[in-house]
Request: fold
Amino acid sequence: MTKNPVYSDRLINRELSWLAFNHRVLQEAIRLDNPLIERFRFLGIFSNNMDEFFRVRVANLQRALLVDEASSTTLGFSVQQTLQAVTNRVVELQAEYNAAYESVELALEKEGIKILNEEQFSEEQESFVANYFKQQIRPHLVPIMVTADRPFPDLKDGVLYFVVGLETQHGSKVEKEYALVQIPPHLPRFVILPSPQGDRSVAFVDDVIRKELHKIFQLFQPDRLYAHAIKVTRDAEMDMDDDLSMSLMDKMADGVSQRKSGDFVRMIYDREMPTAMLDVVMRKLHLGESENVISGTRYHNRKDLMKFPDFGRNDLVFSKRISRKHKQFQGKSSILNQVLKRDVLLHYPYHNFGQVVDALREAAIDPSVQRICINLYRVAQNSKIINALVNAAYNGKKVQVVIELAARFDERNNIKISNVLQEAGIQVEFGVTGLKVHSKMFLIDRLHEGDLQRIAYIGTGNFHEETARLFSDFGLFTANPKLTEEVAKLFSFFSNNYERPDFEHLIVSPYQTRMTFLKLLASEVDHARSGFPARVILKLNNLVDAEMIEALYSASESGVRIDLIVRGICSLIPGVKGMSDNIRVRSVLGRYLEHARVLYFENNGNPKYFLSSADWMKRNLDHRVEVSVPVEDLQLQSVLAQFLDFQLKDNVHARKIDVTFANRFIKPKKGGKMIDASEQIYQVYTDGKG
Reply:
């Protein structure tokens, strides 16, 4: 077990690397060349990420400690030391975050956008707030009195609560009572207030409630009333019992319910909360000093900053970009017929994800279509994909949907859409026992003049219309029989898990991915040792798997030139003499979340390109169904080559990744040109070249 909690001789601690990734998100909120409201929204993304980090990663570490105080992580780091290092780094990041928030808030005020608290409302605003509270908020508030003999109700994960203090003077004695009020999570977090001409004012809904809170407690006639916010974060893991009499859907629903009462992994409270009130909260929640009890500012759930209103100020948000139709689909009435002519590579959000929806809608009404198969991991709340599938079923098509119920934090929505699909008579399956199905693909079978035509779609991102506007991903439409036949095999495997098919072209986890890419790395080593050019470019979200990292080290030692573009966690240490001299690592994080996984192997002048749903993590390689697809069309290879080239030349949003976690921006050489990969790619598609 390594004694350094941050990095060992050969690996970087996964948890600390993730915090370095979230620091890159925070950097986007700090940088002055990002529009002001977008900077606020990056602060929201940072907060949302941190919540999930505690719900999942910190919870896992705490669970490991309960089993064994001397336990270590899969990469060999002490869990206890890791938790302490995480705590220290979170405190540093929170301080940086608070400074960034104050800076952006001040800058917004200079632009005439003011965030007011309840003490700053004008008479007109007070009147508006009183009416808004009465109409929109009051019916949803249920105060619960906190007494010595009554425990706290179960606090919901990630939901805001006010702890309310009521003080009444009886002579020289002050009687104190406490109550708990949940801030309804379905309400908009920001309330736009009437403002003087030329200015815009907004308030957190918290402060609207604070202003009117006395009306709820009029019965008590307190001499003083005050409220401070708390929020708890719970363990996100679900205990899936072995009750064989329950269906998988029932177990998942039960598990989602259990998550509400999972163990606390963090509680945040307003640092201005009186000590006596905090003591009551700690006692009622049975929290000790060793727990993750963190003093925060007045406002929690800053993730809601992602939805901060823009007030129509186009100058304070990113300039609008048009998502375009692929040039091969422009002016064409049938997407499917175009794919039958040649492969099509879509690149979101530069291309409109609606073309995927349109392909399924076309299949739903095409008399030649016999069957549609699709696997779903995450979908939008009101998914057009689901509507298209239901429509296909109503039109007599056979529809097979493989849905991953255990997609973390999407379980409730996936249970709901499973019921919708089954009610439409669709064959719904829940994947492979013991494996998450994380691939992103569908298959359309057509019978045309007696011949079976198959069209497949294989992507790097989910079938989710909303995230497709924010995540950069690729999707390949193909009618190549080598690929479509193997996609059909995989859907057959989902129905009959007992017989595993062989794949010659697709690369499928957990059966081939690790082995195939290890072989491709070994081939590059052979080429390097034979004096041929040898190069690997991997664009991944996360690189954590120790065996794959060791293979990259080995390739580097043999002279293979390796460029890694890793958005998130990277446990590989680059640039170490004799180990990773030939490895450079960068992270590109800007306007879009770079989610696409693209892999390139030089292969002695006969390059191999792959799109993949899998990161190089143990779970993706060994415990999930993932699909990597080779891209063999030379024209599409050139599109991917240009994309990787832009990513490697970016000197606006790219950071150098190393053990220091400094996240230093890669800047142009003196007199050099500024290259923003996202802007360059957008321009390519705008010019009609893609």
About this structure: The longest strand covers residues 160-170.
